[in-house]
């Protein structure tokens, strides 16, 4: 982020503003953690601040301080449209193109506010007045920390802010194991612990909070695992019927895709999840090493993300989606086979 932007943002934040913070649709730990971390900071500074999420977020994040204050756009459009219209500043967090805001794209496109993007996805589009984009960083939460550092505001980090930012860094780094986890990530984490993030409780709240249904749905997912040893690929399917049988709740399948990568030799893993109501199969893609699931999802499944973690979708049936996937896969033989 250029120095001029920091000066302008510092000056804008010196008066009281109406501020809206928007995470991406299908918000995850990093999207919600960064939004709430920034929310507590701005509120503390006297700004009228609201987090508006395009749709609901997983149960395992609903203990986060301030999570009960988040407005869900779906089902509350009129009130949210007014907040967006009246906003002086709109922060968009953890996404690189406006389309990722789902139904909020339209009101956001019409808003007159100053837009500030903070995001770690590659290839940001240029809708924002101030773009803080860095694809080398582990998470948007780490970026919010750095953003506060640039504003010389680290001293204002409360235990609530520290808790929210810690959570997003933890979830987006797979508990500090993915490649983007650097010494700097750990230095930020260390400071967040010093500032009141209770790491033991946070891990427990996020990872030891499965319902019985969720654990059993994981069992079904693992039974549905297919392995293509030659192309070092594994995939999992979950049908709507299987989700219904275990009373699927948002967030229940989070992390399931990683089991594919836990198999020795596998470098590309995908989970296909049927969403009948939306008429689509939602995909999560993960890889190890240099195989770009971002490129793969962009090229074939209307999605995108990062080098090693991306999402996508298909409007075909589950069967046809799998056939399409298996047909495409050999095109990547050079990258995937040993
Ligand atoms: P997940 O598989 O956990 O939903 O998402 C993995 C990564 O891919 C996240 O960084 C997420 O923001 C990104 N992602 C997920 N779905 C989509 C999508 O439909 N389009 C794009 N561009 N990125 C996505
Ligand atoms: Mn993220």
Strand content: 15-25%
> What is the CA-based Rg, rounded?
20 Å
The portion of residues assigned to helices is 25-40%
Q: If you consult CATH, what is the topology of the largest domain? A: inorganic pyrophosphatase (n-terminal core)
Q: Write the CATH architecture name of the largest domain.
A: Alpha-Beta Complex
What would the average pLDDT be, to the nearest integer? 97
Residue runs with pLDDT of under 50 for 5 or more positions: none
Q: Write down the CATH class of the largest domain.
A: Alpha Beta
- Main β sheet profile: 6 strands, parallel
Structural shape: globular
Q: What's the N-to-C terminus distance?
A: 40 Å
Can you list the ligands bound to this structure?
A: guanosine-5'-monophosphate, manganese (II) ion
GO molecular function: nucleic acid binding
InterPro entries: DDH_dom, DHH_sf, DHHA1_dom, Oligoribo/pAp-PDE_c-di-AMP_PDE
Domain DHHA1: 246-324
Pfam families: DHH, DHHA1
Q: Quick summary of this structure?
A:
This is Bifunctional oligoribonuclease/PAP phosphatase NrnA. It holds the Pfam family DHHA1. The chain folds into two domains: 3-207, inorganic pyrophosphatase (n-terminal core) (Alpha-Beta Complex); 212-336, Diaminopimelate Epimerase, Chain A, domain 1 (Roll).
């Amino acid at each position: 982020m250029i120095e001029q932007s920091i000066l302008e943002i510092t000056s804008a934040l010196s008066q009281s503003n109406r501020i809206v913070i928007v995470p991406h649709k299908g918000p995850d730990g990093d999207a919600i953690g960064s939004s709430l971390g920034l929310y507590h900071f701005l509120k503390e500074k006297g700004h009228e601040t609201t987090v508006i999420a395009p749709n609901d977020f997983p149960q395992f994040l609903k203990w986060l301080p301030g999570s009960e204050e988040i407005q869900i756009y779906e089902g509350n459009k009129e009130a949210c449209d007014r907040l967006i219209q009246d906003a002086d500043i709109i922060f968009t967090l953890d996404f690189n193109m406006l389309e990722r805001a789902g139904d909020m794209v339209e009101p956001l496109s019409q808003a007159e506010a100053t837009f500030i993007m903070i995001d770690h996805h590659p290839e940001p589009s240029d809708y924002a007045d101030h773009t803080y984009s860095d694809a080398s960083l582990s998470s948007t939460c780490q970026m919010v920390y750095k953003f506060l550092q640039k504003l010389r505001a680290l001293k204002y980090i409360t235990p609530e802010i520290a808790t929210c930012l810690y959570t997003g860094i933890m979830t987006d780094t797979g508990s500090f194991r993915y490649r983007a986890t650097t010494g700097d990530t750990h230095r930020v984490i260390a400071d967040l612990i010093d500032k009141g993030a209770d790491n033991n409780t946070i891990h427990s709240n996020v990872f030891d909070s499965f319902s019985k249904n969720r654990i059993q749905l994981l069992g079904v997912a693992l039974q549905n695992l297919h392995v293509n040893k030659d192309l070092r690929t594994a995939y999992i399917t979950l049908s709507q019927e299987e989700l219904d049988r275990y009373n699927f709740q948002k967030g229940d399948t989070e992390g399931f895709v990683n089991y594919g990568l836990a198999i020795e030799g596998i470098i590309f893993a995908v989970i296909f999840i049927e969403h009948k109501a939306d008429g689509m199969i939602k995909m999560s893609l993960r890889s190890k090493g240099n195989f770009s699931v971002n490129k793969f999802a962009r090229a074939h499944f209307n999605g995108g993300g990062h080098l090693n973690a991306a999402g996508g979708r298909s409007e075909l049936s589950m069967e046809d989606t799998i056939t399409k996937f298996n047909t495409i896969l050999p095109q990547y033989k050079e990258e995937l086979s040993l």
